[in-house]
Amino acid sequence: MNNLPSPFKSPKGEAEYMTAYENTMRLWAVPYEAMDIRSRFGSTHLVVCGPKDAPPLILLHSFFMSLTVWAHNIADLSRAYRVYALDMMGQPGRSIPDQPMRDRDEMAKWLTGVLDALNISKADLIGWSYGGFTALNYAIHRPDRLRKLVLLTPIGSFVPLKTQFYVRSMLTRLPGRYWSNNMMHWMYYEPNLKNEKTKRMFDLITNQFYPGVRYFQLPPTVLPVPYTDEELRGVKNSTLLLIGQQESLYDPVAAIERAKRLIPNIQAELIPHAGHELPGGQPETVNRKILEFLKGD
Description:
single chain, alpha/beta, 11 helices, 9 strands, 39% helix
């Protein structure tokens, strides 16, 4: 047990969030082991699944979400990989910070500390949204610790976020669930919600998002500002970039074009019928493309 103070504003708020968190974890279709790793920046919570002797694969989730968002990807990914899904430090979830990560260098040091504690010398890394921004940052700082890199609709990495994103984010701070629900609908490609499986995930994550926004005390956070040309040209790891064609947070075509122009060894494509919810909205397509990429030369 750790003795760090809760990052939530009240026990009641924390209880409401954790109930929503556990409800979403019920969607996981594979057995998993939960663990907590204490390092310089606090206690990192993660769940582990897949064959113990399989190659390691790290998952980093989207902003103001938690590791629970991988429910529709975990079964396929964990068949041939030992998957470590992290609750990102400084985000709502079961990780507990004891100091903020003040810059991108410290954000990379947090992940290095987790890999060291797990005795993982090199791993494949998948990041979704803010997790994609974080994963790309790690490839820039510590390419020696990575094998392959997968970026799923990463925010702020290649092109700026739309002003509408910041306006909508601020509105979620208002009382009531309306603006939180509105934000979630804006990020999703609405036709995907006609799928019962996707709609169930959407409802559970939306129920988790609201108490996260309302009760979690967000520490100083590294903002997703586009990487420089020089940084992107220096990415050494083989990279897969997938962005939903209906991405609403930024210009997906411009992001793909800039990534392909600058990152030396990259496969990049737009995925039809998906917005920012890409891995949850089109899981079969995304899982297949990820596994083909990871298993390829």
